[in-house]
Structures are given as C-alpha cells and as structure tokens.
Write a structure and sequence with these properties.
This protein is an alpha+beta fold and about 130 residues long. About 40% of the residues lie in helices and about 20% in strands. The protein contains five helices and six strands. The chain has a three-stranded antiparallel β-sheet. It binds zinc ion (2 copies).
C-alpha cells in the first residue's frame, strides 16, 4: 500500500513525540516539514490511522482533538490544568478494575482514563 506524504509526515511526528499531539500541533509540525495539508485532510488521515490501530484519540481536551501513537505499554495520562503538561502514568494493577467490570457481565474492549489536576511544579505549596 502506498502512503501519502501526510501519512508519512504524521508517522514521523508521532515517532518523536513525547506527549499526545493536538491537531493544531500536528498541523504546525507538518508545515515545518514542508507539507501544507489543510485541516480536513489531517483529520481524515488521523481517523484512518485510528481505524488501522496506529493512533488513538486521547481525551485531554474538550476543544482540541488530541492523538498519540499506539505503541508503548498501556498507560493513562496526568494532565496539568495550569501548565498543560501531560505525563504518562502506568497503573500497577488494573485487574481489580477489570474484575469489577466483568462482574457486571460486561466485556470491556478498551478503556481510557485521563486524570486532571496540578503537576508538582504548579501545585507546590500554593
Ligand atoms: Zn488502564
Ligand atoms: Zn503544571
């Protein structure tokens, strides 16, 4: 399958990204790499990549669609409401959570959990 330049560009950006990327940030990065796709093209490409299991949408903003690559271990996010820092966090044991859900007779496929608050710097004795 032949990939479009936008696909290649997005793949490269996600590869070096250290945090989830809002569509606006992705657009800026694509422009910097010499591409000039419009927003709709980028949205469509992201939806396609999501359906292929390459990226997933992260619920850290109600206003900006934000994505990250599906590559590393299952994790959640700590989002600072003041400075916007996003940190990955791996929960030690989610089996109790999954057992509770199974007890409801529900078969979970995926879950997303983002925790909002203040990071160490922003929350420090203030
Ligand atoms: Zn989890
Ligand atoms: Zn902060």
């Amino acid at each position: 399958m032949k990939h479009t330049p936008v696909y290649e560009g997005l793949t490269a950006i996600f590869k070096r990204a250290r945090k989830p990327q809002a569509v606006g940030e992705l657009l800026t990065a694509l422009y910097k790499s010499g591409l000039q796709p419009n927003k709709t093209t980028v949205y469509r490409q992201l939806e396609k990549m999501e359906s292929e299991g390459l990226v997933r949408r992260v619920n850290i903003s109600d206003t900006n669609a934000t994505y990250e690559a599906v590559s590393d271990a299952h994790h959640h996010h700590l989002v600072c409401e003041r400075c916007g820092e996003v940190r990955d966090i791996v929960m030690k044991d989610e089996s109790h959570l999954l057992r509770t859900i199974a007890a409801e007779g529900f078969a979970p496929k995926v879950h997303k959990l983002e925790i909002f608050g203040l990071c160490k710097e922003c929350g420090a004795d203030k």
